[in-house]
Predict the structure of Tyrosine recombinase XerC.
Amino acid sequence: MMIEGMLEEYLQSLQLASYSTHTIAAYKRDIQQWIDYTQLNQVNPLTTDKRDASFFLMDLARKGKDNSSIARKLSAIKNFFKFLQEREYITDNVFGLMHPPKRKGRLPQYLTHNQFSELVGLCTDNDFEGVRDRAILEVLYSTGCRAQELVDLNCREVKGRTEVLIRGKGNKSRVVFLVDIARRALERYYEKRRNIADPEEPALFLSSKGRRISRRSLYYLIRKYENKLSERTRLSVHLFRHTFATHLLDEGANLREVQDLLGHEQLSSTQIYTHVSVERLKSAYRDAHPHARRS
């Protein structure tokens, strides 16, 4: 069987394991990049050695890929080779011996309370798109959900206007909550939604044509408001997720609770947000302590 056929077989196995279409597409891109590299350099991708694998990672770095991106690609290819080994298409998983590059310890960016207030204040309250956009921003900040999770939301998954059932990665479900401001924004949106939605349409957030919004539409929505902010800030759906987690921890939430709300499998994925709070404490200490100011 050719390598392309093996890749399709692997992707089908991910689909059967309930991986999201977004995750499967990302795996396919990363693995295809390796296959393209081997074809360009006339290397057999199934009998490659550690030297070829190392050159591939070096080539990614030369092209400007950061360590986080390289580590993700390496993980995808490792899992693919593990699958090939289990199916006895290959005997050795050369990528299984390789370690990902160290990720730079960048702290996640987040919005201040004032920045978020300015942002939602930019949404108009007299037309469908403005009311919808305000509801989307409030739900993102109130729940910390991912982009695909928001796009996939259905009306029936909002329980009593206060709880939201999120279907996350690996088809795992969790319950998140709406604060009063988000709940009121969602109620105003429901009033506008009735005017354009088909009664049978399950999707919560719709385009002006009455269809479920896409990830691309969500991206352009965020970008539209980014350009209107008084202070230059790079906005993304993940920024709201970072803001959600940081503000919860700043207000005394338990790290395990925040882990559950974010849908993180590993606590280590959540712990980076505690570093943000520690940096803020250091700053407050330096600004307020007389001896710290003097030094």
